[in-house]
Amino acid sequence: MRKIIILFGPPGIGKGTIGKSLSEKWGLPLISIGDLLRDNVKKNTSIGMKAETFMKRGELVPDDVVLDALVDRISQEDASKGFLLDGFPRNLNQAQMFEKTIDTNDSVVVLHLVAPDHVLIERLSMRRICKSCGAIYHLKNMPPKKEGICDICGGVLVQREDDKPDVISRRLEIFRSETEPLLEYYDGRHKILTISAADNRENIIERIEGLALWV
Ligand code: AMP
Questions:
Q1: pLDDT tens digits for 18-59?
Q2: Residues involved in catalysis
């Protein structure tokens, strides 16, 4: 039996940050499709070359590209007991394709994170990531010790191209039109737990740990 947690919520809700804490606590790998794609872009692989223009515009990368990357990742040994998914699925086709990879023994929980739009926009525009290791910072709430430098690896912190204002609004629009309707698809199919993610990480994690995820 695999424990599969789908971190579900709009861009900026904190799926990456929350996912990292839960991954460490639960000993399950965090699989971020965005990170996988960014890594491919950095390395100039064929997946990266197909994905880059879509990502810059804040559009979804074609499903076949994303699925190839995902299927490859979840077949690795460290994902055999389960995993947390960040940023997948993002539309109905992806959800249906993913369902075909799930066994009847697998246990799937959708962790639905919610926060008002102004919180998301503030988080995205203040977010900086490490160019080398991908660590996530927030200029106000989670700043690095030394300005512009990653605490973990000493890499340079940058703003993601798609965290700039016009792309942020496009990403939120796509979430509302293509991703959010998936809640209807999951309703009755898998357990959906809705959690407010408007405050700080510690409170959100405490709230999640207080939930009966696997009963
Ligand atoms: P994220 O890091 O989750 O915000 O994703 C960054 C970008 O990667 C998105 O705006 C999309 O261009 C692409 N992306 C990530 N996950 C997916 C997905 N499941 N399907 C299509 N595109 C994706």
A1: 999 999 999 999 999 999 999 999 999 999 999 999 999 999
A2: 15, 90, 127, 160, 171
- From 37, 56, 174, the mutation candidate for ligand 1 (largest count of ligand atoms within 8 A of CB) is 37
Q: Which two tokens stand for residue 206?
A: 């405490």
Residue 215 has pLDDT above 80, yes or no: no
Number of other residues whose CB lies within 10 A of the CB of residue 203: 12
Q: How far is the CA of 33 from the centre of ligand 1 (A)?
A: 6
- Residue 206 Rama label (left phi>0; alpha psi -120 to 50; beta): alpha
Q: Which domains does the chain have, with CATH numbers?
A: 3-28+81-209 (3.40.50.300)
Residue 196: strand pairing partners: 114
Q: Which residues line ligand 1 (CB under 6 A)?
A: 11, 33-34, 37, 54-55, 58-61, 66, 87-88, 90, 94, 162, 171
